[in-house]
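Narrative summary of target 7.
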Amino acid sequence: MIEAVVDAPVTVDNKLTRKDFVSDQEVRWCPGCGDYAILAQMQKVLPEIGVAREQIVFVSGIGCSSRFPYYMNTYGLHSIHGRAPTLASGLKAANPDLSVWVVTGDGDGLSIGGNHLIHCLRRNMDVKIILFNNRIYGLTKGQYSPTSLPGHRTKSSPLGSIDYPLNALSVAIGAEATFVARTQDTNTKHLSEVLRRAAAHRGTAFVEVYQNCVVYNPTAWDHTTDPEVRDDNIVFLEEGEPLVFGKDADKGIRMNGQEPEVVELGNGVSRDDLIVHREGMKNTAYAYMLSRMEDPEMPLPFGILRCVDRPSYNQLLTSQIEAAVEESGSGDLAALYSSADTWSVES
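Modeled conformation, tokenized:
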């Protein structure tokens, strides 16, 4: 289990329920879309974190996932393409007591919004970023996205994509995000646990959520959802536990020199030989190694890859302002306007 205790900035006297976070808007995603499951788990988790609805804001860009703020009975901003991290950063800086969430997709967040995402992560803004990854542009009708696999045929790549895809987790870890995780829409229990941990983190929490586009990329993650093969394609990360996976928990991952390798347990290989997961390592090398594990050679890591403590941008900004006020006083805006040379212009 992924457990966390949230040190919430605002407490709620009357216990909220999921229904309190359901808006009066009709949900307009395609039938069967995984966005419904993510929405449901978010509405289920938020009553548990002890923050009033009036103190919660969802910010989105453009895309199917970006309709999210309409369906949450909280404050929300449906912003412009790729700029949600920028608006969320300004909002949190000006209103540090708010719980600010960014909802984005692999196109919105990693293409036009890639630069904004990276700088939000490196600054360690105290916002939570949920990136829906379906390896396609769904809202604009099926063009290949920054995470689409090479050779993927779409309306914008009829002969197959020749782009090398971005790895969302590697990007986040490269930007030194202090919380990086992966989960999936169909595994609702795991999804809700990861969302709780993200809510508890003080700093930028980046969560990648695998979900298929049922219209334009319905088989993107079949290898992680098909009961026949998923246990061999996923390794669940548990703090302090060895990396074991497989339907019979008979496989593991150990280091072979500087590279991880898959081994069968037994015949001289035991759990003691395997890598033990440590999410709190300050050095990003281990978390980055996990993020580079790709099928079919390696199982995909699910869970918290990295969770470290570092002062957030918002903490540092507040401390800087308080120190300036203590040294120089709170200031007078009118006095500031007239403090330098002034002149009048006659018409």
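Residues 242-276 form one domain.
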